[in-house]
Amino acid sequence: MTVTISGSGLTVSAIDAVARGEPVRLTDDRAVLDRVEKSRRVLKEKIARGEQIYGVTTLFGGMADQYVGPELLVEVQRLAVWQHKSTTGPRLPAPDVRAAMLLRANSLMKGASGIRLEIIERFVTFLNANAIPHVYQRGSIGASGDLVPFSYIAGAILGLDPAFKVDLNGETLDSHTALRKLGLAPIALEPKEGLALNNGTGVSTGIAANAVARAMDLTALTLGIHALYAQAMLSTSQTFAPFIHEMKPHPGQVWTARQMSALVEGSKLMRSEAAGERGHRAGKLIQDRYSLRCLPQYIGPIVDALIIAARQIELEANSANDNPLIDPDTGEIFHTGNFLAQYTGVAMDSVRYHMGLLAKHVDAQIALLMTPEFSYGLPASLVGNTSGKANVGFKSLQVNGNQMMPLISFYGQSIVDRFPTHAEQFNQNINSQAMNAANLAREQLDVLEHFLAVALICAVQAVELRAKLVADTYDARAVLSPATQRLYEAARRAAMGEPDASRPLHWNDLDEFIQPKVEGILAQISGRGAIMSTVAHIAESLRTGAVP
């Protein structure tokens, strides 16, 4: 897959692919390339006529009342990047830096920024060589764009100074050495180009795009886990009946019910309520508890929110978001506020909030599985060998989840509404905090992956214990639906190996530690291994917006 950079058409999936290493190319569409060149010509003509342009013939922000003469036009652009080498702290992960470079190049290709094509081409060279500038998480308030992080990228691709660093082929190099290895030389900025490189929303939005892709993947995995839980709890398939959701047809609810119905179809554990049958649970509650019975109604709004967030991020990724902007058709220069990353920040606040809801729902299901009064015959804390005198099963593992679930919810608090009003001489007196919102999303999703690894271990143990009760085998493939057999197998192998008819995943507590099982599953989730491939079709349905 080679992603084409044309100023439009980038999707969350395409951004995610490039973030993970897929190559890129600039479009060869002559109309797009002509706009890039024409905006540059318009700018030069304006400067030659002595017109005043923000950040070109003036200083920046609250100092834009200070004008500079022709002899300082280049110096001002160098300063625009140079001054923002001002932060330190945690580095941005390489996938987020790659996404940021892709989005900056895509924005510049809209032909409204007045930058030379040869500079845009450097983003392509860096991405295809997997040359990763050192960029930091802190410093951007998401107004006037992501000035600080983008300046670190700009300083590296330009070779502004050797102090800008690049990781290339396992080495950390100064920018001049990195450029030499890439067959390039340092390049001097011309008027407007410093601002074109750092005044935009692409860093926070690149991080956000990666977060949305991960959130959709983890939502798909969560549905798979819920399908295993539903079978372990001898739930009714009636919960997902089309008639119910036709009566309340929110798109996310309808989609969730369809996905869950497909996941549990053909299971030997799900109860049928056709013709008054009550299946395995005669004499018990006539209905499932809310966490099962209301599953589509609960997860539906999460699905809808993810789709809205994805649309907002994709629109932002395909926008021209620096200042000023140049209309190459009319020659007019606009002093704008497109650099405010409010859509990105609001989208990330929403995603984090809804991922908190997702985790809380899973935690409620785990609590049912662990408690004999509610689990319809499963042993307390999913103990494997109930004849053992000293087995406590997954008691500690559940406590692990209880530590992570509130943290995931805590990450769901909004930050976009906490902006300082005095930033930069009261010039940036509203700002989006999009970078904070996006970084928090990445951190939250790291915890959510771990939490879902715990949840999946519980699911594997639960269905194996149920299989023993129903079919006298611990190999749950004998009773699970075809769609969840694949997820079960992948998780079982990642945790411990092939399903074993004679023993469940966890038997005697002192036989082995639980930690390696968690690590095995977590590696598959975070690395998008076999576990995630079993729910990839669900995630793809989300990413492509195939929701009613």
Describe this protein's structure.
There is one protein chain. The chain has 548 residues and is mostly helical. It is built from 20 helices and seven strands. It folds into two domains: 3-200, Fumarase/aspartase (N-terminal domain) (Fumarase C, Chain B, domain 1); 209-323 and 334-419 and 433-451 and 534-543, Fumarase/aspartase (Central domain) (Fumarase C, Chain A, domain 2). The protein starts with a strand and ends in a 5-residue tail after the last helix. The protein has a three-stranded antiparallel sheet with strand order 3-4-5. It has helices at 12-19, 30-48, 73-82, 94-108, 117-128, 147-158, 175-181, 193-198, 202-232, 242-246, 251-264, 290-293, 295-317, 342-370, 395-410, 434-471, 482-495, 515-526, 530-533, 536-543, and strands at 3-5, 24-26, 132-133, 165-168, 171-174, 325-326, 333-334. The longest helix is centred in the C-terminal third of the chain and has 38 residues, at 434-471.
